[in-house]
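Annual report, structural modelling task.

Input specification for the adenosine-5'-diphosphate complex:
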Amino acid sequence: MELSSAKKTQLLNYKSISYTLYAVILVLAAAFPILAGQYYARYVIVMFITIIISIGYNISSGYCGLVHFASAPMYAAGAYGAAVMMVRFDMPFIVGLLFGILAACFVSLFVSIPAFRVSGHYLALISLGLVEIVQEVLVEWKGVTAGPAGMYLPNVSFLGSPLTWMGQYYFIFAVMLLSFIIQRSIVKSYLGRAFRSIKNDAVAATSAGINVRLFMFIAILISGIFAGTAGALYAGYSGYISPDTFGFDYTVYILLVVVIGGSGTLAGPLVGTLIITVLPEFFNASPDIKLFFYGLLLIVITISMPDGISGKLKKYLRAYSYERIPDSIEIKKYVALADCGLEENQGADESEDIMELNNLTKYFGGLAAVSNLNLKIKTGSIYSLIGPNGAGKSTTVNMITGMDRASTGEVIFRNQTLNLIEPYLISGLGIARTFQHVRLFGKMTVLENIMVGKHLAFRYGILGTLFRTPKMRYQETLNKEKALAYLDTIGLLDKANEVASSLSYGQQKLLDLARALAMEPKLLLLDEPCAGLNEAEINYFANLIKRIRNSGITILLIEHHMKLVMDISDRIIVLEYGKKIAEGNPKEIQENSAVREAYLGTAVAKYA
Ligand code: ADP
Ligand code: MG
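The model returned the following structure:
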């Protein structure tokens, strides 16, 4: 498992390279006003502000995948919120800043509330409307915003005396650094993993127990907080604001910064700001060429580097470096946890029914995909649902997990009716599933996929996330060890740091299963786990499924592979055209003439 020390010395450490780069930038930025003077320092202040707002946009769009155009309106709310407080109410800058952030959060609601209902392109369109509405308000609400003439602000002061230009520089520099650190803390917490999982596959995220709408709301709120902060800083530092700064151009500018820098990477906002502000300076003589240059840059970068410059750099550096995970210390620790979650019988009461389906029915248009299905599942057994394609097996699983709503009938799980419960909550009750067509978080690592499965195990809040408290670190480490143990159980430990989409099909199916297992479910729904696998892989799965059952987890298995089904099932249910045509133990099913006739034919006779 461990890399040989020779290999270690041969390779560069990716982390130490990026830390060195950050340190160089930090020192340069700190020394800049002293070396370059006031004139150039103003440029850098604007860059800091751009970085702050881009970080917010990066979180909502780069990490969470919500493409919107609300940066400028939220930025405007921050700037005008601060200005109105300082000018009309004679408040100090700090009050203006807080009010500006509040105002930006308010504007962010106009993006996040529609996001509850619409998604994708529509969200972008709605936020585009927001740009125009906020412009209108700034221009027309003259009594407050002074209209197109704009507002002049008093000097920002600190402890009674006005801040010098250098004071302003270091103040805004500090806020930028803080923003950067906050971005990192968020990304490296369960919050960040939830955001990324939503971007990768919102359905799979839901089945991991993530409240997708809530987290989308939070992501947009965070982008509002950053934009509001940036807006207030801009107003305070520039001393004058007017509506035309906050138009469509600015929103697109922020989008460009993030996309070119590398959306969904920590350094993206920084790299993007550097490129977008510094490079075009060479074309200052002609504004037309500058626009042309922006366009060209965007085309070249989106085609050649889909993850932006920082994403490309990261890949390049990784290729020439080694990863420390899982390192020897972690391996030592998790060995104690080996077979995590699969200890022999955890004391399930096998006399009880864990689930009951009563007259469960689902219509798609006129088609009854499932009709009047009745079923009781005993705790601690393997139930198999078989039947030809289109018989309604997946639809049954979808109704149990809340992804399809039953037309009539009930799903009762441990004496609780599930019909009206939100899908993400159903996962939280102890039902986990895999998908017939694997749905992994393709761009996240194998380890991260399992960590998302552990989403509900994380109990640290905002403070834990921001300050990386001991509680937060403890939970992260503990669950990482458990996740590694699951990977070991399915034999994918050495792939921990590879992106999930790079796995073979069989490995992806295994990872899908391990992610579901990591949720420590009471009932596990497996939708054709062995479809498309070879004989050896199927045997591996058969063993694994038996071990899972022996650990006390009840299993509902959908599978076409008859030998597997006959070997491991305690009970089999046969569906045809949405109706149950037989139920019994494997022997009874094999001998059932209706089943033979309708579906199994010779397939069963072979194992009889
Ligand atoms: P199985 O998993 O047993 O192969 P499914 O449950 O996927 O079958 O499908 C049962 C029937 O319902 C099929 O006829 C299928 O075409 C139909 N069906 C499944 N999902 C939908 C849907 N979302 N919309 C319309 N029809 C659907
Ligand atoms: Mg199916």
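The domain at 352-430+522-608 is CATH 3.40.50.300 (Rossmann fold).
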